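Example A, followed by Example B.
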Amino acid sequence: MATTQSNPQERTARELLTQGRPLFLGVDGEDTAHYWDSYEFAVAVVMADGEAEKVVLAETPFETLAEWCEYTRSERGWDIGPHVGGSLVGDLVRGVEA
């Protein structure tokens, strides 16, 4: 049986969040990984050097995860992702339009 090892950023996110396996959202333009915890309604923001913070959306002006992702896009851009909602077809259409 094969085992999978989580990367250091994912391990840090797991330590910050309640959910045992948070959803990987993506990596922003500053090489910072974002992980979503639907139990806490929070995002773990983990930098490549290991520094991290938990952002509880209720403590921000953002009401939804989509708003958080759009804010990140406007401030830092996304190198990978975000992997949130939508569909593969929608992702392809947005990629072609870009």
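Example B, a separate protein, is given below in the same form.
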Amino acid sequence: MDRQMYHYATVSKALQELAEKGFTTDFNLQEDRIKANFSDFEIVEIYRYEGESDPGDEATVYGIKSVDGQKGVFVAGSGAFEENSAAKLLDTMSIKGREAQ
């Protein structure tokens, strides 16, 4: 799988870039769908935002695609990686993808 990771100064810049590439669905509104069917999703791109003065400002923006072709984004703040969260599942998928390369 060809995943790309980018670093931008702001989350809004990452979201803008992804929207221009057709990632228009807000998967944060469908977190339960991701948790229930995480194998139906593929991470296509990962954007990292690192707060310069406060680590609590860090965020990860995932460009993901569902098996039915729906493309969208999921934004995870630094506190979003709880044990049973969609962000944790996406992070695990990201790590597995890096190990496979």
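On Example B: The first helix runs from residue 11 to 20.
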